[in-house]
Amino acid sequence: MTTTSATAASSGSAILTALNANNGIDTGSLVTGLVSATYDTKTAAVTAKETANTAKISSLATLSNGIDAFSTALTTLISGGSLFTQPTSSNTSVLTATAKAGSQIGALSAQLSVRQVAQAQSLVSPYYANAGAAVGTGTIVIGSGANSYAVTINSGNNTLAGLAQAINSSGAGVTASVVTDSTGARLTLKGATGAANAFTITPGPDASADLAKLAFNASGMTVSGSSVVSPALKDATTAAVGQGNFTLTTAQGSATITIDSASDNLTGMADAINNAGLGVTASIVTDASGSRLAISDSNGGLTAPSFTLQPAANAQVGQVRFVYPQPTSGMTQAQSAQDAIVRLDGVDVSRASNTIDDLIDGVSLNLVSAAPNETITLGASRPTDAIKQAVSDFVAAYNELKGQIDTATATSVTGTDGSVTTGPLYNNSAIRQMQTQLSRLTSTVLNTSGGPSTLAEIGVVTNRDGTLTLDNALLTKQLTAYPDAVEAMFNPTQHASSPLIKITSAMGATKPGTYQLTNIVAQTSEHSASGTIAGVAGVTTGGSLYASVTSGASGLVIQPSGDIASATITVDLGLGGALQAIRDSLRASGGVLDALSTQLTTEKTDLTDQKTKIADDSANYRDRLTTQFAAMNTRVAAYKATQSYLEQQVAVWTKSTA
C-alpha cells in the first residue's frame, strides 16, 4: 500500500469513528478527517515534486561548479606560464627574460651585453627647515623634450610641500617628493627613464630670488675656448631651437632676438644674433655629435661672460638651452637621464626603458645592471615535465567531472520489487549535450602549426565507459619528436605566415581560425598602411591595420613592415581556450545549462505557488466544514432538547393514566 492510499484510509477510518460514536458526533475529528482525505494526496504529490526539483537544482549546481573548476584550474595553470618554454639567462643579476604569450621560442639562442642601463634624472634641493618652509613665489617652468609645464607658487602654496604638490599636478611627468631627516627637509625630483626624458627647471620672469635658486639646466651654453657653445642639435636647419624672444645684451647695448616659425633652427638664430649688430658673432659648428651654435666677439677674442642671452616670457622651453650665463642653481643632480644600451650581434641598440620588448622576437628583456664586458647568453628551457603533469592532471580532472555527470544521470534497479532509481538529471537533454561536447575534447584540433594536434594523438585515450586514461609512453614520444607542437596544444598562439607581418593584438582578442591577408601595404611617409583582412578592408590607425568589426577576424591588429600580396594569420587558443569555449556555450545566457537552470527555478516557484494554493484551499475547506457542522450540532442540540421534553411529557401522561 502506498503512503498516499494509507493516508486516505486513515482519514476514512477517522470519519467512520466519528460518525459511529455513541456519545454524539465528534465534529473536530470529522472535519480533520474530511480535510485530510481531500488534500493530503495533493499535498504529498507536490511535496514529492519539490523534493525532485531540489535534487535537480543541487545536481545542476554541482555540475556547473565542476566545469567551472575544471576550466579555471586549466586556465590558471596556462596563464602562470609553466606550460610554455621560458628563456634562460646566463647571468640573471645582469639580465632576465620572459617569453611573450603565444610565442614559440624553443630554438632561442642569442648573445648580448648590457652596455648601460636606463636611468631617470633626479635632482635634490638644499635643506629647508621643514616641509612647511617658504620657497618663494612666482613661476617656474619644467621643460621636458619639446614640452613645457608652468608651476605657479603663490601665498596659498608657498611651502616646500606646496611646491611638490604643484609639480606633481603639473602633468610634466616629474615626480616630486619631500624627504625629511634629522638635518631638515629637501625637495627631490625624478623624471622617467631615458635620455629624452631629461628635464630642466627655468625660473619665470616673475619668480622671486628664492624660487629662482631652484633652476636647473644640465645642457645649457658652456664656455669653450674663446666661444660660448650650445648643446648639440641634430642639424642646423631642421632641428628646432624653440620660438619666442631672447634679450641679447653686450657692451654696445641690448636687442630683442626674435625666433619665429621661419627662423626656428640654429641657422636662423645665428642670423638673428648677427643682424643685431651688437659686437658678437654667431656661427654654426658641426661635428660627429651634431650642430652647435657658437658665439664670440667680432674679433674672435671673447672673454666670457661679456654678453648675456636671456629668454623673454614668451620663450618656448627649448630656448633654455641657449640661456647664457646659466642661472646659479641650488639644485644638485643626483643622477642624470640616460638610455639603456644593449649590444646584440655587435650592434648597439638604445632604448628609453630597461624593459625591452622589441629586440628579440617573442622575448621581453629586463635589464638589471650594466656589465659592458660580459657576454650574456640567452637560451630556452622547455617545460617537458610540467606538460606531462598537466596532461595527467587534465585526465584526472576530466574523470572527476565525468563521475559527477554519471551520478546525476545514473539509473539502477533497487529493491526486491525491481523498482528503478534514477539520478536527478537522468535523460536530461542539456546534460547529454554537455557530455557530448566534453567528450569531443580529445579529438578537437588544438594546434595547426604541424605535428600532433589533438589530445588523442599525444596519448589521451577514451575508454568505453567515457573515462580517459593516459598513455605515458606515447606522450613522452611526442614531446621528444614534436616539443613545439605539443606545447602549442596547451598554450594560445597566433602567428603570421610572413615575417613582414607583426601581430600586435592581445592573445584571445580574435576567435581561433586562419585569416587571409591580401594586398597589404606598409605605412610610409607618403601613405598609410592598407589592405584587406578576412576579405574586408582593414581600418588604419598610425602604422597599424585593424580588422573590421564586421569581419570574422574582429579584434585582430597587425603592423606590416613591408608590402605583401598575400599571407595568412593563424590563431589557436589551445586546450584552455577550447574548454573555455565549451564552458561559455553551456553557461552563457541562453546556453543549455542556463536554460535548464531557468526552467528548474521557474518550476520551483510554480510548485511553491501550488503548495500555497493547496494550503489556502485546505484552510478554506476546514473553515467551511467547521461552520456547517457547528450549525448541525446546534440543530441536533435543539432536537435533543425537544426529545427530552417529549419524553418527560410522555412519562407524566403515562403516570397519570396508570
Précis, in short:
This protein is of the alpha+beta class and 658 residues long.
Strand order of the largest sheet: 1-22-3-18-19
The shape is: elongated
Calculate Rg over CA atoms.
45 Å
Hey, roughly how much beta strand do the residues contain? 25-35%
Beta strands, count: 35
Low-confidence stretches: 1-9, 15-23
Secondary-structure content class = alpha+beta
| Tally of structural domains | 6
**Largest pleated sheet:** 5 strands, antiparallel
Helix run count:
11
Mean pLDDT: 86
Q: First CA to last CA: what distance? A: 63 Å
Structure description:
By secondary structure, the chain is an alpha+beta fold. It folds into six domains: 3-45 and 601-656; 67-76 and 384-490, no CATH class; 86-118 and 339-380, no CATH class; 119-218 and 327-338, Sandwich (Immunoglobulin-like); 221-322; 493-572, no CATH class. It has eleven helices and 35 strands. A five-stranded antiparallel sheet has the order 1-22-3-18-19, with no helix packed on it. β18 and β19 (347-351) form a beta hairpin. α2 (27-79) runs antiparallel to α10. The longest helix is centred in the last third of the chain and has 65 residues, at 592-656. The protein is elongated, with a radius of gyration of 45 Å. Mean pLDDT is 86; it is low at 1-9 and 15-23.
Key descriptive features of the protein:
5-stranded antiparallel sheet, disordered N terminus, 6 domains, single chain, alpha+beta, 658 residues, 35 strands, 11 helices
